[in-house]
Amino acid sequence: GIGIREVLLTSGCPGTEAKCIVRVEECRGPVDCGWGIPISEGLACVKMPCIYIPPENRFKYVWKMLILNKTAHILPNDSAIMEVCRDTHSVTFQCETQENGNIIASVKYTVYATTEMETKKSRRIETGQSRRKTTDAILVFCLVTGMIVTVGMIFAMIFMILHW
């Protein structure tokens, strides 16, 4: 396949991170390149790209809505980028990049429901504020320590000059 993918580690990450990127690699071999990251994601809508390399019009794109235990529903959108608005439940989409009738890459996206996004946003704000407080405390500590050391050095130099 074409494109790149991030290889994530879900345990053993530094600090309190739940996921961390181990490496970014080219997708070679299997066409299923895994899960993609949207171009833009807001509370209302999401823009998702297919996997492609320039020029984008050299490929054909087939978007599908994946439904658990059912046949995938093929969507009329045939462009490299699809924008969908959030619904009341999560939906998984898949885009197949085709060249000369062969699937050369495939990527999936889960578009979470509006209510799930609001919950995630509030969690992100909470964890972001606690991280910000910790970072601010560290910065204040470093600043105060630096000032104390600087003042101490100035007094030491004055003392040495006067007693010379």
TrEMBL record:
GO biological process assignments: acrosome assembly
What sections of the sequence does the record tag as coiled-coil?
none
Q: What is this protein called?
A: SACA1 protein
* UniProt entry keywords in alphabetical sequence: Membrane, Transmembrane, Transmembrane helix
Membrane: is it a keyword of this entry? yes
The record's GO CC annotations read:
acrosomal membrane
The residue ranges crossing the membrane are 138-162
Q: What InterPro entries is this protein classified in?
A: SPACA1
| Gene name per UniProt | Spaca1
| Source organism of the structure | Calonectris borealis (Cory's shearwater)
